[in-house]
Each structure stands twice: as C-alpha cells, then as structure tokens.
C-alpha cells in the first residue's frame, strides 16, 4: 500500500516526465496524456507516446487497434447516446443510438444529378423541411441549375430560401447538422467526400438502382424524418480510411484555390517534405490501385507498419473498409464484412498467383503502397471511384483507419439493416428450397446421388 506521501511523489514525477503527444490519426486535433484525451491544441508538437514509440522510426501506430477512434460527436450538434454496454472495448452495435445536444436546425440535401425521377421527391422533402420544420436547407448549386427546377415557377419561393455551395470551393463542414441523401449508394459516397473531418449523421433514402447503403423508403418520409429530428435513432458507424498521397512535383505545382487542391484533397502540404506534394483523402468504400491503360502487370509493394508483406503482380489491389467489402472487393472475390467489424481488407485484382487470397488486417495499422523498383509501368489510384490520378516511381500511398467514421442512420438496427440489404440487393444465399420428405419416405433411399438432394 502506498502512503499519501508516496502517491504525491509519484504524481509529481509523472506530471514532470509525461510527454504530451498527438494521435497521428486525428491530424493533431486531439492531444493525449497518459491515455486521457485533452481537447484543443497544445503548444507541444511531440508525436512520441512513450520511449518505445519514440524509438520507432519506421512508423508510429495510431491510437487504437480496435477500429476508429471513439469519436462520439458528428457535426456541430449530433452525438452518440452514451451507453455503458461494451464488448471487448468495442461498443455493442445494438447500443449505438443517435441523440442531439441541441435541436438540429440545418440539413444538407444531396440529390442524384440528372435524374428527373427525383425532382418531385426532392421538392416534397425540401418543402416539408422548410415549412413544417422551419429548417435551413443546404443544396449544391448545380442541383438548382437543373432546367426542370429553373422552369418550375411554383418551386420558386422555396428555391430562394436555399443555402447553396460548390464542391471543392465552399467549406460547409461546421454548418450542417445532418444530411439527407436522395438516390443510390453514390449519394452516400459523395456525402462522405464533402466532409474530410467529422461527418454529420446521414439519412439515406433508396431512390437509386442498388440501394445497399440506403435503407429508407421514401413513401412515408415525413414520419421518418421527424423521428430522426427528435433523436434516439439507431446508427451504424461506418469506418473510413485516411489516405495520404505523397507525390514528387516533377516541375509542376498544382493550383490550390481556397484551400483545396486541383484534385479535390482537403489538405495540401508542400512544406512537410521538400519537393513533394502531399494530399489527404477520407474514403468510405475503397482505395483502388490498378495498372491503368498499360498492358503490363501492375507491380506494387505493400508495406504494413513499415514491413514489406507482399508484392502485388496482377491488375491491381483494393484496400477497402468493411462498408466497401460489399462493393468492388466482393466482385473481386473478397468476403463481406459487417460495418461494425474493425478491419481493413486487402484484395488483389486478378492476381498472377493462385494462392494470393484476400486478407483482413486489424483496423489501425498503417499500410503503405509504392511502385516496385522493377515495375515496368506506372500505376493509377482512385478513391471511392473519384479523383483518379497516376502514381509514379517515388510516389507513395499511406492508408490507415480514419478517426472520423460516417454515422449512417438505420431503419431498425445495424445488424437487421445489413442482412436485409444482403438479401434484397445482393440476393445473398438465394436458391431453390430443398424439398422435404413426404410421410413414409426413407431419406437413405431418396436423393440425387451427391448427398445434396
């Protein structure tokens, strides 16, 4: 047992020797001392958490190997309803509920562009939000440039009340309380790309072609939107990938209008590495590195926490989140992972090896992908199917789990909604039912000879 004097001495020693460090996954937005978060920015800039981490030069592990950092606020007003039920340091999916610190006042409505079938639902939703709920509605400027909306005189008074923005030019990250998507899965991916930090809760209506990520039906949208505004709705935290692309400038410098680069990255840092351009992206589905238009095999090296784990020879490689495991990765032969599983999936695309199977690694590790020295051609990279760009020798792509997941609002709960999407959208395990035995039949004498009858 320690005496009071010994305890005081120990506390004094810890306060004198403790090093303030930053979570590398949080872009320095959150500082930590002895495992406790300290909100705000401190003057110290040391990244070392302990002598062991400080001595590691190859990489610094992110704060947690149990998935995304436990950020519980989304946008200016939304947060996760506190619940002590946890399983192995991971929150029980059934306990993830949305609540509001203050009543939401602003909503971003994202509509699929150039789809005339969505014009009427879009108008009905906006009128309901403005007139019935007295909310501020944000829409992208090009949505209001649709000829059908421009020529609709009855919609004119409502249209004048919209707040508009332009992608890559206007920052609305601190002005949106929650998001409503009208369309298919692409609208949810687009919403993710607009918020490179904390993402407000997203309510996605299925008005597109597939709708795996859009669980809500639009028929009774008034009641469903009202329930979300009142709070206490189920949510699933879809982890995202934080991707850093480091490219040699090679004599070219991209213009950076209003803090965003030509390629749409939120942060561009030309000072951290001399002669290089650094771009960062938040990715909801996957990062795809492929061979592009070249006829040669892609040849890229994959490092995990500073160690070379394999060289990909084939058409390319997919690094996906659990949400992305049901997209391109599933088409390439990967397993499907529930979004609450903290993991990163690595899936080769048509590998030149029969033994190269998709693998799952813990969320929180750092992957680094570069062209192999002996690669015959360059590679191409895209982020959720966008911002496609060429990767040359000397360039690198660093990928880890982001601190900022996307909170997607559920119709029922994260597990029920996911299996419903598997059944309805992907027709998972759908086959003709096996006939049962009639009374008096002997199972050993009946069948098709392969034990499957």
Characterization of this structure:
It contains 9 helices and 28 strands. Residues 12-68 and 254-264 have low confidence and may be disordered. The longest helix has 14 residues, at 4-17. 17% of the residues lie in helices and 30% in strands. Among the domains are: 98-231, Rossmann fold (3-Layer(aba) Sandwich); 242-249 and 275-404, Tumour Suppressor Smad4 (Sandwich). It is globular, with a radius of gyration of 25 Å. A hairpin with a 2-residue loop joins β25 (379-383) and β26. The N and C termini lie far apart (70 Å). By secondary structure, it is of the alpha+beta class. A 7-stranded antiparallel sheet has the order 16-17-15-27-24-19-20.
Short description:
Helices cover 17% and strands 30% of the residues. The chain has nine helices and 28 strands. A seven-stranded antiparallel beta sheet has the order 16-17-15-27-24-19-20. The protein has a six-stranded antiparallel beta sheet with strand order 23-22-21-18-25-26, with no helix packed on it. Strands 4-5-8-14-28 form a five-stranded antiparallel beta sheet, with helices on one face.
Write the layout of secondary structure elements.
Layout: H1 4-17, E1 21-22, E2 30-33, E3 36-39, H2 51-54, E4 73-74, E5 78-80, E6 86-87, E7 90-91, E8 97-100, E9 106-111, H3 119-132, E10 136-140, H4 147-150, H5 156-159, E11 163-165, E12 178-183, H6 185-194, E13 202-206, H7 221-230, E14 233-238, E15 241-248, E16 268-269, E17 276-283, E18 286-290, E19 298-304, E20 307-314, E21 316-320, H8 328-331, E22 343-349, E23 359-362, E24 367-371, E25 379-383, E26 386-391, E27 396-401, E28 406-409, H9 414-425
Parallel strand pairs: 9-10, 9-12, 10-11, 12-13
Antiparallel strand pairs: 1-2, 2-3, 4-5, 5-8, 6-7, 8-14, 14-28, 15-17, 15-27, 16-17, 18-21, 18-25, 19-20, 19-24, 21-22, 22-23, 24-27, 25-26
